Amino acid sequence: MKSIYKMLILGMVYLLSQTTFAQFQTEPDPTQVNNPKRTGKNIFDCSCTFAEDMQRFLDHLARVEAAEKATFLAEQQDIQKEEIERRLSKTTPYPDFRSAQRDLFENHVFKEVSDFHLNEAKKRYNKIANETKSKVEQKRIEINTLKHRRNTPDALAQLTFGDLKSNGLLIRDMNSATALHNQNVIAGQLNNTYKPAAIEATRISDGLIRVGNNGNLIDRIVDLALARFDSFNVEDKVTVMTKYLIATSPRVDDYGFLNLTEPKMYNAEEHNPQQIAIDHANSIGNPDPLTPPTEHGLDAVLQHAIASISEHTYRYNRKKEKLNQELKEYFNFHNFSERALNMLRRVIPPFLNNENMSASPSELSSATTPPTYQDENTKELALSWRADGYEIHETPNAFSGLGNVMAELYNNQDDNFVLEGNTIRQMFQANGMSVPNAYPYTDENLGRVFDFNKTPQAGKPGDNFYYRYEIIFKPTIGRILWSSNVRMSTIFTNPLYMNHAVAASNGATSDLSFEIILLELTDKLGLTRGQVDYLRTRREFTKKIQEFLWYSRSDEVKPIVVDLINTSMGGFLEEVQESTLLGLIRENLSTEDSFDATQMTLALIRANRFSGPYDRSYYESINPFTDLDFLNVIPQANLWFTQEVVKQKYQLFMERGAGDFNKGVEWCNGNSTQCNTTTLWRSSKEMIHITLDGLGLIPGGGILADLFNGALYSIDGEGLNASLSFISAIPLIGYFSTGTKYGVKFHNALGEYTTLKWVFDADGNLINFGRSSQLRKVMNGILQIGHHAHHIIPFSKRFAELVEKAAKAKKAFHINSLENGISIAAARNTAHPAYNTAVEKVMKFITDELPDLKFDEAYDLIIDLKKRIEVIIDANPNAKMQDLADEILKLIDVYRDILTP
Questions:
Q1: Which value, in Å, is the radius of gyration of the alpha carbons in the chain?
Q2: What is the pLDDT of residues 32-62, one digit of tens each?
Q3: Where would you tag: which of 91, 574, 653, 695 has the fewest CB atoms within 10 A of its CB?
Q4: Do the beta carbons of residue 896 and residue 848 sit within 8 Å?
Q5: Is the full-model pTM beyond 0.85?
């Protein structure tokens, strides 16, 4: 016995040492130790002689297993209960796990599933209830029709009932007995089939509402789920609850994990949720009363005719009073003929089933009378055609009057523009109007823009007689299009015309002329939908682009314009910058590098370098457009660019002030963005072809840091004067080893630009002002015919000390500037060495008297001298320049008096 106890103790130690659940398994079975197929290992392998002892051992082991599993399950369910409380935001703990579990199932796991299936059942039985109730009503209408036949003389039967049938028999051919017999047959069908079906369907439909209000379906689903849960083993109970708690949300398509994987929480194949709801509804619902119809006599005949089209048509028509009236007129006109019934079957049931009407072109066009179209007096008419496929008095065409039915059928179903539009398309096409099968000429848009018009049934034959069809524009659209010069004959030739009409149908305003501009720009520039949508919000900007493209008439500008649009779309440009840049390109279309200058400016704006600093990012932006790699000479480039911006700003001040510096400053202060953008553009343009020789070799850099790290081109008048003074001094302090040059753009009277250049050597001595012929270009537009451009201060004396000092002044005198030019008759402007020498002597006298003359003082004196000489020239209108030398020399005495204290 001791050996058996030892084995029991060792066995229990081994089993209890295993992982959860596995420690309680009884495999391998110690009673099958001799089975050669036994798998697994054990610490003993014996042949047990005493079966009673082994059974007691197994029973004890099972009790231990059950107790441990119960403890494990309780611990896990405590954890899960806390998680449910957190998930459902419970402030008061649940009394036990089952309460928490039920609440989770009802409000989270199965709620959406229950709602979904309950709603599906409601929709299904609402439809069945309506159909069965309608069927009962139709059969009662048929009975009333047969009653009327019994009261109608045979002579009037054809006129009253036409081709209408009951139980497959023509009603007009029935006698009183036959009509009564059919009446009784239908009554039997009512009592035995149709009424019971309607009662059951309405009872279930009502009951389903109660099921939802009472929560019967969710309760039943949860009960079934909990019953299934209780049948699981411990492991499956923990697993299935964990599965629900880790799920982000339940899904209807898999019943909230009902059937996703084993273990299944709820098997929908065993318990169909909709059937559960229907069965319960059938037991608690109340059926609707089946009220007899009010129609008798001819009214019953009309409703029976409508029911003969289709059951769906009958149900739909019961809610449409105006459609019912048009059907009444149509049937009266056609005497309930089979042709009329078949025609309506081709139109109304397809419409109700969301299908297009089908007809041949010959059915939809005039055979003998040409169609009529929109004109001055009928702006709202699109098309009018006569349904005259047959002689109207012999066999009425079933299309006669159908337009009026369509007018009510389609107009009372506003969300079905596609079907109406397709029918209208067929009629347009059949009457010679080609409608493209592409956007925006869709069926939906046709339905939005056009309507069927109703024509009177009575009256003399004419354009508005009953057998005519009229397709009209929806209210005011025709007049709107007419005022935009769009006619019915052209509306399908341009997508913009159709878009214009669609916008009007939606009550939106549409500027057709602007849309045409957008279309033209799209074609010219290859714009994307996003670019077009943006330009649609920027009307004035778009019009300026269109005007610019018309003016330029060049393909070269297209990439620049697209770049401008993209930069504007990015929110980088102010409106005034857009206009300024377009203006600069337009003014400089024939000027070299204007396109690159624009792209450079846009690149700088996009790189957020419009206001500096002029760092590596700045030069990376402009490098693609320049000959020189500025990244290797940034210090030198900064110094050169500083000079260029200051000079361009000065020139702009002078231009905008019409020669008055202060007025130019005032204009720039009031138009800072335009002024600064123009300065940046012009300065950038000058950088495109700059060379190392022109740039100069600048040691170190940093001298102008305060200047070029700010927004140079936004410098004001006072700052500009200081900068000009500083720049003028640069050559004197030896920063340039190979010389420097800078220039000012001059805008002459003809709108042409020329550059006035100052070139100094390394010692600051003036080397060159350019060519003397440049004065004529500066004066182009103000020179009289037969005149020369005369240098008042002679070009040959440009190296005089007074001239060089004046050139270094803030205002930088230039020998070829407009202020030094005068228009002189060619006969007066012959060789004049004496004139040149006289001017030179006067200038030498001034500099001899004032050896410490400053640059700005020199500028003032040379301007004063120029004006005095100009007075002498004007006072002697017939004298040659050569003959004025003596008068000029007298100015020495004038200056002696001025300069001597």
A1: 51
A2: 444 444 444 444 444 445 677 788 888 888 8
A3: 91
A4: no
A5: no
